Amino acid sequence: MRVVVGEGKIKDKIMDQHCVLVLLNETLFFLFCSVFVKQCIHFLSSFCRSRPTFPEKLFFCQAKFAESGVDGSFSLRVVSPTLLAAEKEEAKAVLTLFLKKQGLSKAFAARTINKSDLFIDHLVSRLHSVHKSRYLVGRELTTLEIRDALIPYLETLHEEYGNILVELVENFPNAPVKEKPVAQVSPSHPTVDSKKLKAVSRMSEEGPEGDLRPQVLYLIELGMDLERIKLITRKFPAFAYYSLEGKIKPVVEFLLDLGVPKSDIPVILTKRPQLCGISLSENLIPTMIFLEDLGVDKKQWAKVIYRFPALLTYSRQKLKSTVDFLYEMGLSAESIGKILTRCPNIISYSVEDKLRPTAEYFRSLGVDIPVLLQRCPQILGLSIEANLKPVTEFFIERGFRMEEIGIMISRYGALYTFSLKENLIPKWEFFLTMDYDKSELVKFPQYFGYSLEERIKPRYARVKECGVTVLLNQVLSISSCNFDKTLNKKMKKMLSEEGSTDSNGKG
After folding, report:
1. Could you tell me the pTM of the whole model?
2. Percentages helix, strand, coil for the chain, rounded to the nearest 5?
3. DSSP annotation of 450
4. Which domain of life is it from (predicted)?
5. How many Å apart are CA 89 and CA 351, to the nearest integer?
6. What's the DSSP call for residue 180?
């Protein structure tokens, strides 16, 4: 009995252990299923949140592709944190202005902005997508350019979302539920395109008597044709709604009074139609006075505006930051004024992302930066990787020392603005056929600035034909008349020396 009882207890114990194991396995399986289900729910939730809802279908995917740089386009990584922060502030300002125009109070708009960090990031991505070519060359956008890029997009969203736009802004990227389903919007942005078409159509409309609008007739009188006016309007649709007497005519007459030729007005307005939307008394004139105080020659305004009309649309802070940098580089106030007059678009380059790194690169080559800036200020707008380094490597590979390259740049800053394939390589190959040592190029790097077919080859052929020796700079730099005189003088001297040698030989 004891044995039986003992066996029964053992069996009971084994059964109990088995039940515990079964229960434990069931519990573990339940926990596993629970975790798995939660993971699935989390994945689906994340997937749904990450789906490109409108407005992301319009631009967010483009921004992501831009970040990856897969298609060779602009990468957001090249934008400095400082510039990115400034652009976010600009985007906030544009969004605030837009919300207030929709009837929201200043306080309500401010509260919305404080909840819209992700949407602000999205606006900046949109900005980079639209103006990626500008960022590639290191140019900062003006406030007006930022506004022109973002306002049409915000208007598109407002038309799509109406009164629940604020909800979209605060909950981005999760689009709010609308009463009607979201229509699929193609990448061509039909709403924006329709606005452009409407604006262009407005400029082509004829009145009851068959006449075009007064502002169109005025622009045609200035020398524009209707196609150019349409081109400006497609580029900047708001131009179609500028009044003749209130906006266009006052700015045009102001430019004419500055000495801008009438024939230059179409070019200026094509480059920068936004000028007509800027207040003369509150913006244009004060900005010009500010620039004159910085050294811009007031007698040269006509040329300055023609070269770079966008200059008048930059903030004073932006203008001052560039001028401070030029002072830092060792330039005098007079020199800075001349640079801003000759090359006003230097203002468009970012100091920290473009001007300073490029100056440091040239300094590493032993270049005198103040001299370089005075001779060729536009060179600081070039890309170090795409433009400068390839040219440096070109000369190093051909036996020039770094010191010699620095001397060449200091003497002729434009040297680095030339194309390797179209300019430097073919001219170097021809130089190898000439009877000059490469040290002549260190003395006269301007050689690369002359036309190979129209100047270098014909002039050198004349020298060879005459059988004389002429310095490289004399072959190319002097006028045709003086070149002929130089050759005749060299030939007479050569003949005289030959005659003297012959007479001495006979004696």
Report:
1. 0.58
2. 75, 0, 20
3. S
4. Eukaryota
5. 18
6. S
| Rounded distance between C-alpha atoms, residue 206 and residue 393, angstroms | 60
Question: What pLDDT shows up at residue 88?
Answer: 84
Q: Tell me what pLDDT residue 79 has.
A: 61
Q: Which of 402, 359, 407, 408 is nearest to 381 (CA)?
A: 359
Which residues of the chain fall short of a pLDDT of 70? 1-80, 82-83, 103, 132-144, 159-160, 162-163, 175-193, 499-507
pLDDT for res 50: 40
Q: How far is CA 17 from CA 5, 10, 12, in A?
A: 18, 10, 9
* Extents of the domains making up the chain: 1-35, 59-69+80-177
pLDDT at residue 142, as a whole number? 67
Query: On the CB side of 294, how many CA atoms lie within 13 Å of its CA?
Result: 27
Do 234 and 201 contact (CB within 8 A), yes or no?
Answer: no
Q: Say which amino acid occupies 488.
A: N
Q: How many CB atoms lie within 10 A of CB 15?
A: 10
* Coil/strand/helix, residue 211: coil
What is the torsion angle, in degrees rounded to the nearest 10, for the CA atoms of residue 430, residue 434, residue 437 and residue 443? -70
Task: For residue 406, give the amino acid letter.
Answer: G
Rounded to an integer, what distance in angstroms lies between the CA atom of residue 135 and that of residue 126? Answer: 13
142: DSSP letter = P
Residue found by looking up tokens 């989390």 in the block: 42
> What does the pLDDT read at residue 125?
84
**Among candidates 219, 226, 99, which has minimal Cα distance to 161?**
99
Nearest to 239 by CA among 213, 206, 200, 271: 200
The model's pLDDT over 39-54, given as tens digits with 9 standing for 90+, comes to 544 444 444 434 444 4
Cα separation, 86 vs 110, whole angstroms:
18
How far apart (Å, rounded) are the C-alpha atoms in residues 402 and 88? Answer: 42
**Counting beta carbons within 10 angstroms of the beta carbon of residue 138, is it exposed (0 to 12), middle (13 to 18) or buried (19 or more)?**
buried
How many whole angstroms separate alpha carbon 235 and alpha carbon 242?
A: 14
Q: Which residues neighbour 69 within 8 Å (Cβ) at sequence distance 6 or greater?
A: 75
Instruction: Find how far residue 233's CA is from the centre of its chain.
Output: 22
Q: Report the pLDDT value the prediction gives residue 141, as an integer from 0 to 100.
A: 67
What gap in Å lies between CA 112 and CA 120, rounded to an integer? 11
